[in-house]
Design goal:
Elements: H1 16-19, H2 22-28, H3 32-41, E1 51-56, H4 65-79, E2 85-91, H5 97-106, E3 118-124, E4 137-143, H6 168-192, E5 193-204, H7 215-230, H8 236-241, H9 251-255, E6 267-276, H10 280-288, H11 291-305, H12 307-311, H13 322-340, E7 348-356
Parallel strand pairs: 1-2, 1-4, 2-3, 4-5
Antiparallel strand pairs: 5-7, 6-7
Helix pairs in contact: 3-4, 7-13, 10-11, 11-13
The protein binds S-adenosylmethionine.
S-adenosylmethionine (SAM) binds next to helix 2 and strand 2.
Length: about 350
């Protein structure tokens, strides 16, 4: 493996992300009214063809059920019960699409329950390129996904998360990658949305003080990794490659492509707001005082989302169960460190409503 080859991989498989993504579920909920507003304002295709909702970065689907149902219900309110609706879930090729389809069929909260004429599809292809045909999308949704870069541009010498690195060269490389990826994401959506279509994006962000949040979590994770190096469980070269390719963008970063005349490739921003996600793990801790449960739940958040990508940095070759042991050790050590000093976690997010210009 070369240093430059660190790319995001899918979330924890075998439905693991569905089980351990309550922080994301809580964080996306305040963006659902924005999605409903977008669905009520989106221009609808004339003629009988189906409406198309695309969910960019769906993972295993559980957290998509609420927003998709909300959007479908607004469309049904506008068009009546007979208008067919396609729901396209997109993610990276390694995503656990089996878990996604089982969720759609079996989860009691699935938008397929008690709604006829809804057709789900899936696409395994990066959203940094066009993934559905031009001009076909009525409504787009993306939550907790565009903070993932297309690749880690270079190693981070003093951290695994760029926001807490002091290395100027690495910070600047990440900032350039973040700019390029955001523009590519928007360009591809501009191509896919039909005239008057809408897109809602919920993403990790930095707040007005430039704070990415999650500080106790990132510190615990990095300390656990340093200890693994010290004990010889992983090599320092492996840790050096272990960059988490996520960024928090500021509101200014997210609005930058629209700076010149308020438009970017025919898209324009209707609303953009930084807000803080609810730390329900801290709220529960305040109720029960169980520090161990606090540590385990926050570690589970990392395990489900970033551990698989970090594990990609381990030396390839005969595994002999090392990868599984790495995940288990990192999880338990991280959880134990967090339990030593429970603290509330800052969760800066941004919700944006973007429109494609009408014809
Ligand atoms: C943290 S999960 C979010 C899942 C769900 N939308 C939610 O709100 O909980 C991020 C998802 O984005 C996907 N993702 C990351 N980079 C991607 C890319 N370039 N193209 C498509 N999906 C991507 C990941 O594979 C992952 O499933």
């Amino acid at each position: 493996m070369t240093e430059a080859s660190v790319t995001p991989t899918a979330m924890e498989s075998h439905g693991g992300y569905n089980l351990r993504s309550q922080v994301q579920a809580a964080g996306l909920t305040p963006a659902v009214p924005m999605l409903e507003r977008a669905a009520s304002l989106a221009a609808l295709p004339t003629g009988p063809q189906s409406l198309v909702i695309v969910d960019y970065g769906s993972s295993q689907g559980h957290n998509s059920l609420l927003p998709m149902a909300a959007a479908i219900d607004v469309f049904r309110g506008r068009c009546g019960p007979d208008r067919e609706i396609s729901v396209v879930h997109t993610d990276l090729p390694d995503n656990d699409f089996a878990a996604l389809f089982h969720t759609l069929l079996n989860d009691p909260d699935s938008y397929l329950k008690s709604r006829a004429g809804i057709f789900p599809f899936a696409v395994g292809r990066s959203f940094y390129e066009q993934v559905v045909p031009s001009g076909t999308v009525t409504l787009g949704w993306s939550s907790w996904a565009v903070q993932w870069l297309s690749k880690a541009p270079e190693p981070i010498p003093d951290q695994v998360q760029i926001s807490y690195s002091r290395d100027e060269e690495a910070r600047s490389a990440y900032a350039s990658q973040a700019k390029e990826d955001w523009e590519n994401f928007l360009r591809a959506r501009a191509q896919e949305l039909h005239a008057g279509g809408k897109l809602v994006v919920l993403t990790m962000a930095v707040d007005e003080h430039g704070d990415f949040g999650y500080k106790p979590l990132v510190e615990a994770l990095y300390a656990a990794l340093l200890q693994m190096v010290e004990e010889g469980f992983i090599r320092s070269e492996e840790l050096h490659r272990m960059a988490i390719p996520t960024v928090g963008r500021s509101k200014e970063d997210l609005l930058a492509p629209f700076k010149t005349d308020g438009k970017f490739d025919g898209l324009q921003v209707e609303e953009a707001e930084i807000f803080y996600g609810e730390d329900h793990i801290w709220a529960e801790y305040e109720q029960h005082g169980d520090a161990r449960a606090f540590g385990m739940k926050w570690s589970a958040f990392s395990r489900a989302s970033v551990f698989p990508t970090m594990a990609e940095a381990l030396d390839p070759g005969k595994d002999n169960g090392r990868l599984a042991r790495f995940i288990e050790r990192l999880d338990s050590d991280n959880a134990a460190r967090l339990a030593q000093k429970p603290e509330p976690m800052l969760i800066p997010l941004c919700r944006m409503l973007i429109s494609k210009e009408s014809e």
